[in-house]
Amino acid sequence: MRFSSIKNNNSFFPYLLLLIQPIFMASNLAIARGAASSVPPVSLGFWRWTLVFILLLPFFYQSILKNIKHLKSEFLKLFFLGFTGCCLCSIFPYVAGQTTTVLNMSLIYTSSSIFIVMLSTFFYKEKISLLQSLGFLLAFIGVLVVISNGKLSTLLNLEFVEGDIWILGAAISWALYSVYILHWKSKFNFFTKFTLIAFFGSLSLSPFYLYETFYLGDKLNLDFMSIFWILLAAISPGIVAFALYSKIQKYLGASITGFTLYLFVVYGAFYGIFFFNEQLYISHYLGGILVLLGVYFARKTNK
């Protein structure tokens, strides 16, 4: 049965997708943590996006060939999206997962919405309201509370957990990807473009993969666990999360789709607590409240 017919028969279905999609989106952070002892971080990212491309290509190669004439003019744009959305947003979280918690990653990564608004203002001259400025400040303070574990001495001495800095870099990279893809009108449809982005993501990851494998000597051992994590990374936060997100945007619009971000934090906390026995501290509650309030205000547009 097609999605459109389901939607027409049941108006609740898009909202069900809204609840389900962040489960797959937040799973990437659980994978980053869970795979840390089984798969080198760059290897995980490289084989994840290579597999995504291989799985999607049989379905969309005809569309790619049909629009091959547009590939030359859109090459640099696709490469930029592959580099920011696939390469950096794989390396940074997967390196972060080796030293920080899923709880911290989910809260800090949520700040990507703040960076999206800031980058849109800088590159596309979008106006910022006083309320949005307040949102930036609250989210910034919230991130500082999380990465410092609520300790002023940590901030003064710059004694941060390395993984928290990496995941902050991932949030900025995702913001770059999101802003650019939002303002770019492509000749390719969504899934054809996504297939090409996966290819360029894999391509941009390849030199880092070779560096990790041959220079650092951190080679991938193909066993059951490594294959499991790579497959899960390709299918759950890769194909399924992206596909569901596009459907939600189509049915409910961008504003309501933004609520996936709040659920992302909830599911991230669930993964951290129930799968990795992580503990919630006062800094998580306080930082989480400030970040989510900041995101809420930052998403408020001028009337």
Please tell me about this protein's structure.
It is a single chain. By secondary structure, the chain is mostly helical. It has one domain (3-298). Helix content is 80%, strand content 0%. It has helices spanning 3-9, 13-34, 41-66, 71-96, 102-109, 112-124, 130-147, 152-157, 162-183, 190-215, 224-257, 260-276, 282-298.
Quick structural gist:
The protein has 303 residues and is an all-alpha fold.
Counting copies of identical and different chains, the oligomeric state is single chain
How many DSSP-defined strands?
A: 0
- Indicate the low-confidence ranges by residue numbers: 1-9
**Mean model confidence by pLDDT:** 85
What is the C-alpha radius of gyration, as a whole number of Å? 19 Å
Helices and strands in order:
Blueprint: H1 3-9, H2 13-34, H3 41-66, H4 71-96, H5 102-109, H6 112-124, H7 130-147, H8 152-157, H9 162-183, H10 190-215, H11 224-257, H12 260-276, H13 282-298
Helix pairs in contact: 2-4, 2-11, 2-12, 3-4, 3-10, 3-11, 4-9, 4-10, 5-9, 5-12, 5-13, 6-9, 7-13
Features:
13 helices, 303 residues, mainly alpha, disordered N terminus
